[in-house]
Amino acid sequence: MTKHIIVIGGESAEDMQRMTHIDEHIVASSGKTRPTVLYISTASGDDRVKIFDFTAKYESAGCSVRTLTFFIPPFPSPDHMSSLFEQADIIYVAGGNTRAMLAIWREFGAVGLLTKAWENGKVLCGVSAGAICWFEYGHSDSGGAFALIAGLGFLPGALCPHFSSEAGRETSFVELVRLKGAQPAYAVDDGVALHFKDGRYHETIHNDATKNAYDVTTAPAYLTPLSQVSGG
Q1: For residue 232, what pLDDT band results from cuts at 50, 70 and 90?
Q2: CA distances in angstroms from 179 to 98, 135, 182, 217, listed in the order given
Q3: How far is residue 75 CA from its own chain's centroid?
Q4: CA-CA distance, 99 to 1, in Å (whole number)?
Q5: Is this structure's pTM higher than 0.90?
Q6: Catalytic residues
Q7: 135-165: per-residue pLDDT in tens?
Q8: What is the pLDDT of residue 177?
Q9: Residue range 109-141, pLDDT digits in tens
Q10: What whole-number distance in Å separates Cα of residue 120 and Cα of residue 80?
Q11: What pLDDT was estimated at residue 225?
Q12: I need a labelling partner for 41 at 20 to 30 A (CA). Which of 85, 100, 102, 120 fits?
């Protein structure tokens, strides 16, 4: 059974309200015409506007959308959480505060459910915090300054979102990758997603053809566009 993880570097305000090429790729990867999507909005503090926009967007593509929330009622029981994960074909994680999200997931037992979902071939995906969480390390500013923080470790190495759109991202990520020796290391612009199959990079998907994703090494010429790297 193929294990899918699709990570998005960032989205524009417009992308959050319309089905994009990346969204269509996520839906198609489920292998179902009308998949059930579980939206986990923990990192955004269960922002009601973002939940509404995501639900409307994916329902417009024929998906059934359910949400898992911890900050707004009804608060989930363990049985309800298990049911949400079991029914989902796609699990989509919102952006926001990565550290807070991971702490809440661990407190409420979501990590085990995510692990089981991944092992069972459900499509795992997300943007920003919802992208870096799947890796051993994620480049995050959720502690007030850029740092490589420990993720779930479903994918090896490190990921940096918002690579070209946020000041200081590139310098910080490259330096931290060198210090940590984190490999492989991926840097992803807004409007770009990476698809991993069975733990290996498979392909790059673009909403914005002017943006890119990179393989980051400790060599002097440290950025290689992933379009030049063979997928698995």
Answers
A1: very low
A2: 21, 17, 8, 12
A3: 23
A4: 30
A5: yes
A6: 128, 162
A7: 999 999 988 899 999 999 999 999 999 999 8
A8: 92
A9: 999 999 999 999 999 999 999 999 999 999 999
A10: 19
A11: 82
A12: 120
Q: Chain-wide mean pLDDT for the chain?
A: 93
Enter the tokens of residue 179: 């210090």
DSSP string, the chain: ---EEEEES---TTGGGS--HHHHHHHHHTT-SS-EEEEE-GGGTS-HHHHHHHHHHHHTTT-EEEEE-SSSSSPPPHHHHHHHHHH-SEEEE--S-HHHHHHHHHHHTHHHHHHHHHHTTPEEEEETHHHHTTEEEEEE-TTSS-EEEE---SEEEEEESSTTTSTTHHHHHHHHHHHHT--SEEEE-TTEEEEEETTEEEEEEESSTT--EEEE-SSSS-EEEGGGS---
**C-alpha closest to that of 39 among 13, 20, 59, 65:** 65
Measured from the Cβ of residue 147, the count of other Cβ atoms closer than 10 Å reads 15
